[in-house]
Every structure is written in C-alpha cells, then in structure tokens.
Design brief:
This protein has about 600 residues and is mainly alpha-helical. It contains 25 helices and seven strands.
C-alpha cells in the first residue's frame, strides 16, 4: 500500500486524512520536519510514498492527479509531492538537502515542506511532473482567512464535472467528440464505480468487434445489420476504456499493449469477416480487403515515421506549419480537417453504416476511396512541411527511422558495403533510391505472370536499393518517407503476387496473404509503440529471425517462381503462422515485463 506522510502540525476540522485514505494511501503523521525523513526511510523501498502538507486545501481530484498517476516517477501540486520506487532515492536526497539548509526550523508557514523538496528536485535537474489542474484547487493557505477563501473556491467548482471533462481525450475526431464522448464518459464513470478496469473494457471491445466480424461472415442481411451495430458498440467501448483510464488514472503496461494493438486487430478482423461474408454470397473481395488493410497500415506508417523524424528536431519551423496553425484558429476548419483524414471514428461509422445498408464490396470501395484521399491529403501536407522546414534532425530521430525501416541481414550487408560511397549522394537520395526499388518490385509483381522470374530479379534489386537507402543516417528532410515506402513495397508485392496466383487458378492465396500481412503489420505496430514508450525497437535478433522486409519479400518472390499456386498458398499460410507465433511470443513477453512503459497515447486518432 502506498504511504502518505502528513507534514506539519495538524489542522482542526481538516478532511485531508480521509481524502488520502480514499485514494488508497496509508497515512502517517509527521508534525515535525526532522521526523519526516525517519518515517520516509521506514517505508519499504518498493512502495510509492507521498509528502502532503497538513494545511493542504483542494479538490480530491487534484491530489489524485498528483499522487496516483503511474506514468511519472515524481509528480507534485502545491502542497503535495509523490515519488514512485524508482525515484525514492532522489526524494530522500532532496529532503535531506532541505533539512540541512534549516528548513526544518520553521515547518515554515510561508512555504510547505513538499514544495521546498519539489523545488530542490527541480533545481537539481530532476523532472517533476506537474499536472494541469484547470479550475481545480490545490493550495496551502497560511492563515485562517486564506484558508476560508480556499475552501470557498473548492466549493465553487463542480469537481466531478471537471473530472468527467478531463476523461475525454483533448484532441479527437468530429464523430467521436460529438457522437460518442458525450455519453461514453458516463459509461466510463459507471465502470469505475463498479470496479471495472480499462483492460477489461478494452477486452470487451475486442470481443464485441470479433462477434461483429463473425456476424458479417454469415453473409446475410441480418448478419450485416447486426455487424454494423456491434462494430459501433465496440467503438463506444474503445472510447470508454481510454476515458476510464483518464477518469481513474489507471494506466498500465498491459493496458498500453492492449490499447496499442487491439484497434488494428478489431478493424482487420472485421475486414476478414466482410470478405468471408461476401464469399458466402459468391463475391470474392479478398483482394479489396487486403488492399484496404495495406492502405490503412501504410497511412499509419506515414504518420508514425513523420512524427518520429520531427519529434525533437531543432529549429522545427516552416511556413506550412504556420498556415496550419492559423487555420486551426478558425473553429470550423479544425473539424473539417480532422474529418477529411478519415480518423477511426469517422471510418468505423462509415464501415458500420455501409455494412448494414450495402454490400461488402461497396464497403471496401468506400474505404479505398476515402483512405486514398486522406493519405494524399496528409502526405502532401507533410511533404510541404518537410521541404519548407529548416530543421536539424537528431541522432535519436535517425535511429527511430532506422528501426521503423525494419531492415534485415540482407539490406544491412548492402548498407555496410555501401557506407562509404553513399556519403557523397544528395540529401534526397535515400527516399528516391527506396522509391525506385519499391516501384520496380511492385510493378514486376503486378504485371508478370505467376511463376515468372521477373519478380525474383526485382526482389534482388530491391534488396540492393533497400541497403543503399539506409546506408547513412536518415537525417534528410524527406528521409521519413523511407519506412512507409518499404511498407508499401512489402505489402503491395504480397498483394500483387497473391492476386496473380489466384488468377492462375490457385485457391486461397489472397486470404493467406491477408494473414501474412496482418502478422507482419502487427510487428510493425509493435515496433512503433515500443519506440513511443522510450524503450527502443524490438531486439535485433527478432528482426533477423523474421528476415527483415527485404528478406521476406525475396523469399516470397522466390516461392512464387518455384512452386505452383497451391504450394504458394500453403507457403504463405505457413510463413504467416511462423511469423505471428515468433512476433507475438516476444511481444507478449515484453509488454508484460517490468521494463514495458505505461504508455497512454493521447494523440492518435486514426
């Protein structure tokens, strides 16, 4: 159990002790500052500890935000400071330093001991998180009149209303903001009061989406209507789990992993359900389903790659960004721009409605048109920002792009051999070289007959161009394009080769390719969220074990040239199963380990 130490003389009539206990703290009293260090040292090192001035006046949610958020080793508001086990030694050192300067002589009426310790930590260069309180109150009054005024300020604010508002993601899509969040926040509160955790709600959302996919797979009109309704309800639960996490500050490593991966699992499982349902009605749309998954995944990779490239860029300014900021100052343009990128709320609403009233083929046509427009809009804007921005990208950003590239041993061997010669190439060389190799590969796969050697030749050239593209650090203005180009090449080639195999009479090649792309895409999403959490990419042995993007493509192209259509389907299915098994086992091991970050993504709406 975490421990809260009340410092300073007690205040008659204060409910602070009960407030802290309601937050799960064991409360100990330290009326004299010299006793605080003794009590702190007696608390087990594996427990969270908090220092709270006994004169504190404020909302319980202010204390909750400061003292219970698991994402920050140290956090504080006026009059309260907390340290997780990893930061306990820093807290002990700062407390000792404050006492050595004579702060213990006053338990000063003008400044609280937790504030003095927080200031010392900050001055020493230790990061102390200070949550945004908005209209919430957190203060340490130093006389009866100020205390009375503070209590009046607390009474004037509807704490529960503030807590509900803050449970909603600060930046979200139009559909989510106006059609879901107005009531899903109350569902989140209902779940919190009944002891449900965000992970349980996330799992319920996944199960609901899988049932929706099964309903779509029936191929009946009733099944399609039920599937659309269930998909929307799954999205309501998807919004609720994040709101529940923010409402009750229940962030966790397992929750990070579930939240980061389940959205894609739900959407792509639903695509498969639609394709199965269409097949029952005699319409083969597996190619469209795979194309929709490829396009959506590549859109995300563009987002991830651009953001990582510019996460900590120096002198990060451009006229295009300034224009975007000015447009955001006009209310209606904000929502238009958020809607046209077809974020998850708008996209799932469109899918659900079209499933209920139309056919799977119409659903996929709408998805492909909408996502293509959105991809062109966002990519064009980012190209303009990159070309007009004068920024120096850091080694960390270059390393992140290299990890997102997902190059295996073949491309790495080429990169090592070409490291010297590529130094003299122009700044735009990396994305151009990558694009040339990718375009040649996809074109050869799409235009050659099944069994032709041309895709194998193109795959060999692709290995070479892939290595050349990453032979030097990816710090150029457009080098963030390299990972999405690689993703488009790999996924697009799998789609083209499977389509050629089915045109040649093979059965099940496209569904097998769908499974393979899904397995590889999971690995790529997993890489993104590990980087976002600050723990780096998956281990190098894993990338080597599954071949890297260029190794997988070379293997698949060679299989297409050597085996018949039936053998190709079996090979794709086997490869998908092996990659899925290896990637999932390592991913689960990481995300349930103590080193996994308590990531909670506030920015991703797609």
């Amino acid at each position: 159990m975490p421990t809260a130490i009340l410092t300073g003389p007690p205040v008659p009539g204060s409910s602070l002790d009960g407030d802290l206990r309601s937050l799960g703290f064991d409360v100990r009293i330290s009326p004299e500052a010299e006793r605080t260090a003794e009590i702190l040292a007696a608390v087990p090192a594996a427990e969270r500890v908090a220092l709270v001035d006994a004169r504190f006046v404020g909302h319980v949610h202010s204390l909750r935000l400061a003292l219970t958020d698991p994402r920050f080793p140290l956090a504080a508001v006026s009059g309260a400071l907390t340290a997780q086990p990893a930061a306990r030694s820093a807290l002990q050192g700062a407390l000792t330093a404050v006492e050595s300067r004579g702060a213990d002589r006053a338990v000063r009426v003008d400044q609280a001991l937790p504030d003095l310790v927080a200031e010392d930590l900050t001055a020493d260069g230790t990061a102390v998180h200070r949550p945004e309180l908005g209209s919430l109150v957190a203060t340490v009054p130093d006389d009866p009149q100020t205390r009375n005024e503070a209590r009046q300020a607390v009474a004037a604010v509807d704490e529960e209303a503030v807590r509900l508002r803050s449970a909603v993601k600060a930046r979200d899509g139009f559909f989510t903001t106006f059609a879901i969040s107005p009531y899903s926040r109350y569902l989140a509160r209902w779940c919190a009061r009944r002891g449900f955790t965000p992970n349980q709600v996330t799992t319920a959302s996944l199960i609901t989406a899988l049932i929706a996919a099964a309903a779509a797979a029936t191929g009946t009109r009733g099944g399609y209507v039920a599937a659309g309704a269930l998909l929307l309800f799954s999205f309501v639960l998807d919004c609720t789990d994040g709101q529940l996490a923010r409402y009750s500050l229940q962030y966790s490593t397992m929750g990070a992993w579930l939240d980061a991966t389940f959205d894609r699992a739900k959407e792509y499982a639903y695509y498969a359900g639609l394709a199965l349902g269409a097949a029952r009605g005699g319409d083969d749309v597996w190619g469209l389903a795979l194309a929709a998954m490829v396009l959506q995944t590549c859109r995300h990779v563009v987002d991830f790659s651009f953001n990582e490239a510019n996460h900590d860029a120096v002198s990060n300014t451009s006229p295009t960004a300034a224009l975007s900021d000015r447009l955001d100052s006009v209310g209606w343009t904000v929502w238009v721009r958020r809607m046209i990128v077809l974020p998850i709320g708008e996209r799932w609403a469109m899918i659900a409605v079209l499933t209920a009233v139309a056919t799977p083929r119409i659903v996929f046509y709408a998805l492909l048109v909408g996502c293509t427009f959105a991809a062109c809009y966002t990519t064009a804007g980012r190209l303009l920002r990159s070309l007009t921005r004068k920024a120096e990208r850091t080694d960390r950003a270059a390393g992140a792009l290299h990890d997102l590239a997902d190059c295996g041993p073949l491309a790495e061997a080429v990169a090592r051999a070409a490291h010297g010669p590529v130094r003299g190439l122009p700044a735009l060389a990396a994305p151009v070289i990558a694009l040339v190799g990718a375009a040649g590969l996809v074109t050869a796969a799409a235009l050659s007959d099944y069994g032709s050697p041309w895709p194998v030749i193109a795959a060999v050239l692709y290995v070479i161009t892939s290595g050349l593209a990453v032979a030097r650090p990816l710090k150029g203005a457009l080098d963030w394009l390299v990972p999405p180009i690689f993703r488009a090449a790999e996924y697009g080639t799998l789609l083209a080769l499977a389509a050629r195999a089915e045109a040649d009479g093979a059965t099940g090649a496209l569904p097998a390719a769908f499974g393979l792309v899904a397995a590889v895409a999971y690995h790529h999403y997993d890489t993104v969220y590990r980087i976002r959490g600050g723990t780096g990419a998956p281990p190098h042995w894993l990338v080597r074990a599954i071949g890297g993007h260029e190794g997988r493509i070379a293997a698949v192209a060679l299989l297409a040239a050597l085996v018949d259509g039936t053998g190709f389907t079996i090979a794709l299915t086997t490869l998908a199963a092996v990659i899925a098994l290896v990637v999932l086992v390592e991913s689960i091991r990481f995300w349930v380990s103590s080193s996994a970050p308590a990531v909670h993504d506030e920015g991703e709406t797609a």
